[in-house]
């Protein structure tokens, strides 16, 4: 037995000890944009169109037209109508504009939040100059290929003209040379263009810092949280704090760098834990602890492929197989779930029933005195009876696990046996052979020749095999065919509840459009620092 005197996350541990911990808490997607859409709406992201079918897993730029559709209802919108002050501080990544750079159709303020401060996009490796890149490297490669091809075309045409093997004017030669030069120049400045296009801060509709100064962002976010709480403490409020931490490029202030034995990821995690402590202390100071429900979670599992050299930048998923981007494996979708409400929820309670991030929607709506919408399918279930102990089992008998618009897996909670069965219809092929992830690419694919289709599906009993290490067969599990038949029927029933909607993450809604690019100067000279203003 190993006894540890030091906790690396004392504040999250304190939150768990004082609250209820959900040990089988499941995200509705294994990447951020669709997972966050499901969290806010209580619906599988496929229902709102917040998925893709062509490999664009998340929103790719701030200046795209895709995003959380205006006709979707978030729990913030319902609570705002019930008189709550509603705020979002931190990451959004659910779109901004539809037709112009200031229509704000997807903005947090259009989805029920009356205050927003943070990144409209997402923290990513390209926000800090260095080796980690999530899209700069790929774009630079394409532009370099373009410049070489066009330069070769210009040289070939010039040679043809000089030797009189090619007739016509010099216009084509000049155009080819200009395109080659443009591709080369754009490639050279690509890093700076991405930083200005995506890595900036907003307060409500106004850009305050473009690009953002990463080393002071943590302090600015905590200051904004404290200000919001103090401003609204006399009435009911909903505050969604969406950390920029534990995500590449792992921006960590000097006070925390080099502290953790687990490298930069550990440093970053410790700083996030410290931020949790600062927020809890603010509630204590303002006398709000006993009247505030606090919920702590993540939108997906750790990114196993986020490596550079011998350093792991994407975290680890413990005993669970797979990680971020893998639609079915537990490592990509099983996340922390902690709820604390002193005097209401029993401290130290562990709940091993299947629950979902989508459950927050009906739980919060009903606690706030609102009504869960009846004009649409809501996939979340009210958590309160389970949290209070008045219900023994989760209301989720089945949960579906999508990768983009493709169903990869499904789980069945067979309550009378206490079993949680999970079937995998599609799984990614790990690379290289024998690896535990798709190394060499950003995330594992959802479709194509790099995924395996299973017929019959793979079957696991998570209650006995949470690591999904031993697939069951008719020879090793007497209930194999019964389980398969029951889950097959549940999937068919689920599919009958789906309606076709435009997919927000597909092209053309998920490509950069310059007329949608937020800019605090005259485009393309987007630069300002209003955070430094007195």
Automatic annotation (TrEMBL):
| Key words of the record | Calcium, Hydrolase, Membrane, Metal-binding, Transmembrane, Transmembrane helix
Q: Which SUPFAM superfamilies match?
A: Alkaline phosphatase-like
One GO molecular function term of this record is:
arylsulfatase activity
Where exactly are the transmembrane stretches of this chain?
Answer: 169-195
What cofactor(s) does the depicted protein rely on? Answer: Ca(2+)
Tagged with keyword Transmembrane:
yes
Q: Which cellular components does GO assign to this protein?
A: endoplasmic reticulum
Q: Show the Gene3D superfamilies listed in the entry.
A: 3.30.1120.10, Alkaline Phosphatase, subunit A, Helix hairpin bin
InterPro entries referenced in this protein's UniProt entry, alphabetically: Alkaline_phosphatase_core_sf, Sulfatase, Sulfatase_CS, Sulfatase_N
Write down the Pfam families for this protein, in alphabetical order: Sulfatase, Sulfatase_C
Q: Which residues form the Sulfatase N-terminal domain?
A: 9-369
PROSITE patterns for this protein: SULFATASE_1, SULFATASE_2
Membership in a protein family? Belongs to the sulfatase family.
Q: What is this protein called?
A: Arylsulfatase E isoform X5
Organism encoding this protein:
Delphinapterus leucas
